[in-house]
């Protein structure tokens, strides 16, 4: 069954692109249902930082080879320390996406044991993909300030 | 009483021959790279690149060492291979030879490889350990068919001396013209491929798997010594093959033509080892490498069985 | 042979047989295969890629370096045997290039390891790479490629900069600044 | 000398067997890999952060740097996402030019990968030839776009400029040359008995799990699925072009020598795709209409892209390259998230199939999955 038949709240934003806005406790159920109904390819898990609203938007994206349809399941969580349930039991690659989002945005995923360092090494500052991390200022304060090697 | 003048001359000749072996080995390195480059559609380095590389490696500074075994091992390998070269008949000339020297040569051939293994083991790098395990395994694998063929030749020529085998093949009566030994030469050529560490048997040094294996920690002077060993190894191993199957390059008899014979024989020997090496290079260029167990299977299943059949054939033929 | 002649010979030899470490640090590594293969063929100069740092003479830092890579680059550089040369490849090693405001790439390679030759461009064409090799040969010939000696001489400064970069911490940079003023 | 039975090996970052600047940490027992862990992050430049700092048009030169062997797919996917949000329909001629450029890039990337697989098993000749032949393609790219590697040719709204007048002859010449070379590759690689022995039934991705694990592209087709985004959701001019999608067990001229989903099949699929790409380019050159190649934009650097979400994906030589773009109606994107195909191939899939592999087969498996680190960490 196609996503629109499964979930009446789904809206078609463009041809072949479905968007479902939902709450965080329903995500697991929706992904499971979609997986069982032909949406067998998990494309990616994205995180969008809506700093003005104070929310992170997590977008679970799935694709059906059968219906040629892309579904974005979108939830919003609070920016300050709200955690999310891990969905790694549904698709194995979600584990890696969660690991990256944990590192880059600081979202905690309950039930994912593998949230260790992924890309950065020994990063002491706030997660860099957050909107309030100013990369230009950091570069100017850090890399440009490292002194050159003086030759006598 | 010891004749000091003769002894000195002998030592000088031995040193000269060793130096010549190294020089030819380094030249072969350049030739090999040039030929490989041509197969790759490239121009390739100059033919004297081997000399430059070795000299450069000896001018490098040594930052660290992995202990005296590591330092000693490279020398051990070079000395071992040089000694082996002295025992081989080169263009019919044998410097250090006696009865039963095939066994001695086979034994000596293992020494430099062991030195190599010792050094690599001392370096403590896991890649080197894997490489050495593979190197010793391949050695074990290719020696079986090679020894089969060599024993067949010993039975056929009724001698255990390589020099005698070379002598008996004089006047172009090369072993390779005998049908059964033609097959034997094919078997031995496959073993040679393993000895030269060329594909499909370059398992010990596979760069994509174990980052050049045993040599992973060698650099500078140590690597220079190892390269000398490997380059000389090419000469020694191809010479062994030429001695066994291609009459050692002897085309003119010394008693008849004197010094001219030495010169011509030497040139023929050089061309023959180059030819044998060339074939190895061509095989090297177009084959992927085996996995270690596939190599063992190849040597023990196909190569060794053909070797045994040759041995039986010769044994039956000689006794009947 | 006296020392002068010996080092001259060493220079001539090392010029004609520079072995490159096979380490693709950034996207510039994409132009290395053409340089190694039939079109440009750097083996004409006796150069070829080696698998391990111990055997290599020249280090092509191909492109931007993330801090995580810089750690490995420094390790590899220190494992290489003297004399060794570094070629900074592409704009990213000079001033950060496209990634001038990226939080994870170092901007100026010469602050962390000595660089002998820089190649400008993103990415440099193979001809430019070949040209840099010729330039390096020239410098070795004249005895100007002394980056490795500089590394020994100013070891503490290089180490300090490396330590600072590895830490990612702003306060460490500030501390050093104040030390310098005193 | 002590030879331990169990030890750890680091394949990379400085290792010929590593696919680019990444590292595999493998635990080995005897000759068998017990556990593998992919370590990435050596190439992290924070593209997604930088894109939020730059205006829409400035991002075009950035995105192509995400995948070095085949940069054009990034430009195409990003441009398509922007066009999607803007509601633009690009000129017909631009679609054909995009098809030609993307297929040329695919041939180049496949030549590199096939050469890489062969080299990892020891046929360096194939790698040398592959890179050498790819260079002729780069020449054509240079003629068309002005650059060898990063072309920045596909822009939102079309392509940067029209093909040069002699483009047809140039491209046809290179295609003829490549076609004459392909039989040599077949002899060297695909018909090589030792290669088949090394590659058949090695590094198998379980077929029933392939879709669930997020395997895409040639790797998925090697596992027996006829899934290709060019067919499923045609972009550029693929809907008007007649081409086949090779998949296991339809291997065309190559024998089916294994159960599929192994190194051999993945190589065969790539070789067949090169042939298909040549066919596509020839057809596109023939059918290409005249006309504009780019939309008349109002203001290049003052675009305000309507708010919304867009996801576009293209079929790259490695698999599905997807761009998730979020706009709030401003001059700069709020978020651009790139789905690289290697993200799943290199981390989950490789880590799961590695246990039980021989050490000798680890690097060929990784390379045949076409793991390219820059699109993992961006």
What keyword list fits this structure?
heterotetramer; A: 152 residues; alpha/beta; Beta Polymerase, domain 2; five-stranded mixed sheet; two-stranded parallel ribbon; 7 strands; 22% helix; 28% strand; D: 378 residues; alpha+beta; Cytochrome-c3 Hydrogenase, chain B; three-stranded antiparallel sheet
Reported CATH architecture of the largest domain in chain D: Orthogonal Bundle
| Gyration radius from CA atoms of chain D, angstroms | 21 Å
Query: What is the mean pLDDT of chain B?
Result: 82
DSSP helical segment count of chain D: 13
Continuous helix count of chain B: 12
Description of the structure:
The complex is a heterotetramer of chains A (152), B (320), C (182) and D (378). By secondary structure, chain A is an alpha/beta fold. Helices cover 22% and strands 28% of the residues of chain A. In chain A, strand 4 (55-64) and strand 5 form a beta hairpin. Chain A is elongated. The mean pLDDT of chain A is 85. Chain B has 320 residues and is mainly alpha-helical. Chain B is globular. Helices cover 74% and strands 0% of the residues of chain B. Helix content of chain D is 45%, strand content 12%. The longest helix of chain D is centred in the first third of the chain and has 30 residues, at 92-121. Chain D is globular. Chains in contact: A-C, A-D, B-C, B-D, C-D. Chains C and D meet through helix 2 and helix 3 of C and helix 1 and helix 5 of D.
């Amino acid at each position: 069954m196609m996503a629109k038949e499964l979930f009446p709240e789904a809206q078609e934003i463009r041809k072949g692109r479905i968007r479902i806005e939902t709450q965080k406790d329903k995500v697991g159920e929706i992904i499971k249902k979609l997986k069982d109904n032909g949406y067998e390819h998990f494309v990616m898990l994205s995180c969008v930082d809506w700093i003005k609203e104070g929310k992170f938007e997590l977008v679970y994206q799935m694709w059906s080879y059968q219906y040629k349809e892309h579904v974005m399941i979108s939830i919003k969580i609070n920016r300050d320390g709200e955690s999310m349930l891990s969905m790694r039991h549904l698709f194995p690659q979600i584990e890696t996406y969660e690991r990256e989002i944990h590192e880059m945005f600081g979202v905690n995923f309950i039930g994912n044991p593998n949230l260790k360092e992924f890309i950065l090494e020994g990063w002491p500052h706030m997660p860099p993909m957050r909107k309030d991390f100013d990369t230009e200022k950091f570069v100017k304060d850090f890399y440009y300030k490292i002194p050159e090697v003086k030759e006598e | 009483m010891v004749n000091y003048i003769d002894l000195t001359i002998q030592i000088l000749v031995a040193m000269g021959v060793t130096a010549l072996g190294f020089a030819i080995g380094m030249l072969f390195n350049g030739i090999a790279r040039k030929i490989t480059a041509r197969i790759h559609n490239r121009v390739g380095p100059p033919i004297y690149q081997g000399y430059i590389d070795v000299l450069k490696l000896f001018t490098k500074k040594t930052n660290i060492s992995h202990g005296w075994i590591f330092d000693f091992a490279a020398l051990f390998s070079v000395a071992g291979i040089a000694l082996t070269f002295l025992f081989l008949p080169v263009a019919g000339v044998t410097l250090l030879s006696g009865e039963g020297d095939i066994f001695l040569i086979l034994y000596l051939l293992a020494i430099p490889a062991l030195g190599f293994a010792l050094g690599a083991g001392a370096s403590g790098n896991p890649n080197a350990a894997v490489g050495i395990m593979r190197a010793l395994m391949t050695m074990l694998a290719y020696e079986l068919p090679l020894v089969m063929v060599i024993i067949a030749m010993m039975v056929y020529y009724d001698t255990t001396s390589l020099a005698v085998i070379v002598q008996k093949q004089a006047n172009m009566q090369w072993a390779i013209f005998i049908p059964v030994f033609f097959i034997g030469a094919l078997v031995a050529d496959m073993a040679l491929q393993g000895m030269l560490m060329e594909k499909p048997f370059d398992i010990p040094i596979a760069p994509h798997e174990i980052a050049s294996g045993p040599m992973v920690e060698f650099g500078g002077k140590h690597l220079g010594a190892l390269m000398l060993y490997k380059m000389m190894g090419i000469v020694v191993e191809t010479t062994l093959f030429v001695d066994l199957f291609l009459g050692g390059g002897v085309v003119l008899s010394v008693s008849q033509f004197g010094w001219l014979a030495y010169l011509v024989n030497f040139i023929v020997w050089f061309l023959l080892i180059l030819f044998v090496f060339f074939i190895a290079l061509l095989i090297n260029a177009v084959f992927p490498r085996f996995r270690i167990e596939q190599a063992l299977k190849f040597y023990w299943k196909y190569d060794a069985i053909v070797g045994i059949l040759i041995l039986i054939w010769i044994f039956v033929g000689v006794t009947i | 042979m006296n020392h002068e002649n010996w080092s001259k010979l060493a220079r001539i030899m090392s010029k004609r047989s520079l072995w490159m470490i096979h380490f693709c640090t950034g996207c510039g590594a994409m132009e290395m295969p053409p340089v190694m293969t039939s079109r440009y063929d750097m083996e004409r100069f006796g150069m070829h890629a080696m698998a391990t740092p111990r055997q290599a003479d020249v280090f092509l830092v191909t492109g931007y370096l993330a801090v995580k890579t810089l750690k490995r680059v420094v390790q590899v550089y220190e494992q290489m045997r003297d004399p060794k040369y570094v070629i900074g490849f592409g704009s990213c090693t000079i001033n950060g290039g496209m990634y001038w405001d990226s939080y994870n790439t170092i901007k100026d390679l010469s602050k962390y390891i000595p660089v002998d030759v820089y190649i400008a461009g993103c990415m440099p064409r193979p001809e430019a790479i070949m040209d840099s090799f010729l330039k390096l040969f020239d410098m070795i010939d004249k005895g100007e490629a002394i980056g490795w000696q500089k590394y020994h001489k100013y070891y503490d400064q290089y180490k300090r900069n490396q330590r600072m970069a590895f830490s990612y911490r702003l306060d460490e940079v500030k501390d050093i600044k104040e030390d310098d003023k005193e | 000398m002590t030879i331990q039975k169990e030890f750890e090996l680091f394949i990379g970052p400085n290792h010929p067997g590593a696919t680019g600047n990444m590292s595999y940490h493998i635990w080995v027992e005897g000759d068998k890999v017990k556990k593998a862990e992919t370590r990435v992050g050596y190439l992290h430049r924070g593209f997604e952060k930088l894109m939020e700092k730059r205006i829409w048009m400035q991002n075009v030169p950035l995105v192509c740097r995400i995948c070095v062997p085949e940069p054009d797919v990034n430009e195409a996917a990003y441009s398509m996402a922007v066009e999607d949000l803007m509601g633009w329909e690009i000129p017909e001629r631009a679609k054909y030019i995009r098809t030609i450029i993307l297929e040329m890039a695919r041939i180049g990337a496949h030549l590199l990968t096939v050469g890489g697989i062969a080299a990892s098993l020891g046929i360096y000749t194939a790698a040398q030839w592959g890179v050498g032949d790819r260079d002729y393609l780069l020449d054509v790219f240079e003629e068309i776009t002005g650059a060898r590697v990063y072309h920045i040719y596909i822009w939102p709204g079309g392509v940067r400029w029209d093909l040069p007048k002699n483009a047809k002859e140039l491209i046809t010449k290179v295609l003829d040359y490549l076609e004459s070379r392909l039989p040599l590759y077949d002899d060297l690689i695909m018909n090589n008995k030792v290669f088949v022995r090394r590659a058949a039934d090695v590094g198998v991705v379980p077929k029933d799990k392939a879709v669930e694990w997020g395997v895409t592209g040639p790797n998925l087709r090697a596992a027996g699925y006829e899934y290709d985004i060019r067919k499923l959701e045609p972009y550029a001019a693929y809907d008007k072009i007649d081409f086949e999608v090779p998949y296991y067990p339809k291997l065309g001229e190559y024998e089916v020598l294994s159960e599929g989903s192994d190194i051999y099949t993945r190589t065969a699929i790539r070789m067949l795709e090169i042939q298909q790409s040549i066919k596509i380019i020839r057809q596109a050159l023939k059918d290409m209409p005249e006309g504009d190649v780019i939309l008349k934009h109002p203001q290049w650097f003052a675009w305000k892209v309507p708010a919304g979400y867009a996801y576009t994906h293209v079929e790259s030589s490695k698999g599905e390259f997807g761009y998730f773009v979020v706009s709030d109606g401003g001059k700069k994107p709020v978020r651009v998230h790139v789905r690289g195909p290697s993200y799943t191939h290199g981390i989950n899939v490789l880590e799961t199939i590695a246990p039980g592999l021989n050490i000798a087969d680890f690097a060929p498996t990784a390379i045949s999955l076409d793991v390219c680190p820059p699109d993992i960490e961006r």
